[in-house]
Amino acid sequence: MSRSPRTYELVLLGATGYTGKLTAEWISTNLPSDLKWAIAGRNAKKLQNVVDELTQLCPNHKAPDIETCAIEKDELTILANKTRLLINTVGPFMYYGEPVLAACAENGTHYLDCTGETPWYRDMIDRFDETAKRNSTIVIPQCGLDSVPADMMAFALQKYIRKELNASTLSVIFSLYAVKAGFSGGTTNTAVDLFSHYPLSRVASDMRPFSISPVRPTQPSNPPSASLLYRLFGLNYIPELAGVQTVGLMASIDACMVHRSWGLYQTIAEKSGRADIAYGPRFRFMEYMRAKNIMAGALFRFGVALGGLLLAFPPSRWILTPLIKKFFIPAPGEGPSKETMKKEFMSYRALAIADTDKKEKVLGKMDIAHGGYVITALTLSAAADLILRGDLAATEAGKLGGGILTPATLGEQYLEKLRSFGLNIEVGL
């Protein structure tokens, strides 16, 4: 669709929330100083406070304008038509996300968010994928900690295997190697509310690995085998990933995203005849977290399973949810302090196996000197910078022209942008 001139290149919606403020800071300090942008939300006074903080942080950069906007169709339509791209950090997305995404998809405004709510993501695909395609709108949900590290690591590994070994990728195993990071009230409240908002059967169905992929593999590779002892405790042992592996907290969320990227690239390859861009017909992604030993891994897995079970079924959910919100998690809008965040970090390791007779192994490494919320600000800002100022037409997202896409469809340009912003991904034999 042809786009009328827009007032802004970028609008950040939700800039007064915890993640929104961090994203505003990252945009202000890392995107071009001549960027035409605005921050948006309901409360003009709180937005002005954010602008004042940004002005002190970057006195030589143009301060963002302020746009007041409620989560209401008419106001969102006006806002969407003022900007080329909108970043949405207003969650939970299952409550507030649809009208924002809809306004962007319907009005040709590129869209990024930081949801980790896979059932909501699937709803958006069903309802707005065709609309976004028709209006040439690039829509990339889950462009934060969920699930850029996993999605881009898998993309980088399969690209390396294709280039260096001239082969497809059989599997990618992604592991959280080390972490020191806090959590915010908004994110944890969302996780608790997910089971109340969606039926358990729906959550279980949408968390299956290929639930949001446009295609299914005919014969996906098998998960790595483990000894009886490890299987008894629900663990795995992978020497290349530093040993004992337990359940990853974001494993299901990330697997859905990575397999959507696989499915999109597989579909593009089949339609265009460019077999070299496909991950491979038997590709599978798996995610774990490194444990110190079998006992620690088993206890962690048991705790995660028990917590999920208690939240999944009433009446235990009705009893536990208000107690958890009152005594164990921060209020929405709160999170780690600035001093705490300076000490945070996250490290990942990955193992990819080529789909060849020799089953060659390729290793991946990602060390980030930030916690999850700064990583989300970084990944959103990097994606926005690429879409607005990069060679978008050369990416698969640009070639597709629009739709509900994934971070990996931004391709190697996004990898390089992330590296320049401090999220470094290394791969090699």
TrEMBL record:
<dbReference type="Pfam" id="PF03435">
    <property type="entry name" value="Sacchrp_dh_NADP"/>
</dbReference>
<feature type="domain" description="Saccharopine dehydrogenase NADP binding">
    <location>
        <begin position="11"/>
        <end position="139"/>
    </location>
</feature>
<dbReference type="GO" id="GO:0005886">
    <property type="term" value="C:plasma membrane"/>
</dbReference>
<dbReference type="InterPro" id="IPR051276">
    <property type="entry name" value="Saccharopine_DH-like_oxidrdct"/>
</dbReference>
<protein>
    <recommendedName>
        <fullName>Saccharopine dehydrogenase NADP binding domain-containing protein</fullName>
    </recommendedName>
</protein>
<dbReference type="GO" id="GO:0005811">
    <property type="term" value="C:lipid droplet"/>
</dbReference>
<dbReference type="GO" id="GO:0009247">
    <property type="term" value="P:glycolipid biosynthetic process"/>
</dbReference>
<keyword id="KW-0812">Transmembrane</keyword>
<dbReference type="GO" id="GO:0005739">
    <property type="term" value="C:mitochondrion"/>
</dbReference>
<feature type="transmembrane region" description="Helical">
    <location>
        <begin position="294"/>
        <end position="313"/>
    </location>
</feature>
<dbReference type="InterPro" id="IPR005097">
    <property type="entry name" value="Sacchrp_dh_NADP-bd"/>
</dbReference>
<keyword id="KW-0472">Membrane</keyword>
<dbReference type="InterPro" id="IPR036291">
    <property type="entry name" value="NAD(P)-bd_dom_sf"/>
</dbReference>
<comment type="similarity">
    <text>Belongs to the saccharopine dehydrogenase family.</text>
</comment>
<keyword id="KW-1133">Transmembrane helix</keyword>
